[in-house]
Amino acid sequence: MAFSFAKTVTYERLRAVFCRAHAAPVFVFGNQKSGTTAIAGLLSAATGEALTRDFRGAREPYLGPLMRGETGLNDFIVRNAWSFSLPIIKEASLSFIAPQLLEHFPESRAVFIIRDPWANIRSILGRLRLRGDGDAPLRDDGTSLNPTWQSILTGRDLGLEPDHYIDILAKRWLRAAQICEALEDRVVTIRYEDFNRSKAEAIYRLVDALGLTAHNDISGMVDHPFQRSGQSSASMTKFFGANLARIEAVCGPDASRFGYEAPERGAQRLAAE
Over its length of 273 residues, how does the chain's per-residue pLDDT go in tens digits? Predict the structure, then answer.
């Protein structure tokens, strides 16, 4: 696995020698497991524009230094010019330097995807085969996570202080939400839940909002599994147990501004109605 990763990074870097970054790529931002892969894939399919969907140069050991400002953004882009050369770029980790990227690419347009924090964090943990009610992010089968996910779950990539893994993921969601709000009209904001209710229509509206042109019918591919699902059939309360309250403590006020509420409060409100 490590050999394959090294080979892929070398391939990306060699290609970068002969490439220049696109002058004004469209960025698809959003926390991990917030719907960025599906929306980027459908946006590419609708417009016919080529897509960079994740790249090894944006993983550890390169990710953390970039996020923490130890690696200069211009140097990072030059080293990954091949990955930045296509008209649509989706790499979830870059969402945490979205302001810097949009300053570097002043003509770029971007979409920022927000998802219910409880569902978002559960999906991340499901994708990694981790429990939500534990004291540490340990797999039942004893296998290890790759270095990038270890960095994300400990908050090292964002320079966060050591904390419970659920608190770290909640702070990660919060950081992404605050970046999205701060960018205001510089990005088109989409709630994953709104996209999920009417996928094709949401993509066509996004195409218009970004000033692009839809050349292709995507109605037959909206349910294509662009990424392995991280869903769990357990209720939020059962999945997270006592850890559920950690998410509201960190995300609650910001989540409410996006129209989200804690699962138990939502259940109580529906019961009262």
Answer: 454 666 687 878 888 888 999 999 999 999 999 999 999 999 999 999 999 999 999 999 999 999 999 999 999 999 999 999 999 999 999 999 999 999 999 999 999 999 999 999 999 999 999 999 999 999 989 899 999 999 999 999 999 999 999 999 999 999 999 999 999 999 999 999 999 999 999 999 999 999 999 999 999 998 877 666 555 678 999 999 999 999 999 999 999 999 999 997 644 443 444
The whole-angstrom separation of Cα 87 and Cα 8 is: 21
Six-digit token string for 51 = 């897509």
Give the list of residues 6+ apart from residue 248 with CB closer than 8 angstroms, or none: 255, 262
What φ, ψ does residue 111 adopt, rounded to 5°? Answer: -120, 140
User: Phi, psi (5° rounding) for residue 200?
Assistant: -60, -45
**Single-letter amino acid, residue 90:** K
What's 195's domain CATH number?
A: 3.40.50.300
Reading the block at residue 256, the tokens are 């409410």
Say if residues 114 and 49 touch (Cβ distance below 8 Å).
no
The structure's pTM equals 0.91
Query: Range of 112's domain?
Result: 2-272
Contact call for residues 128 and 205 (beta carbons, < 8 A):
no
Total structural domains in the chain?
A: 1
CB 103 within 8 A of CB 77: no
- Cα–Cα distance measured from residue 52 to residue 247, given in angstroms and rounded to the nearest whole number: 32
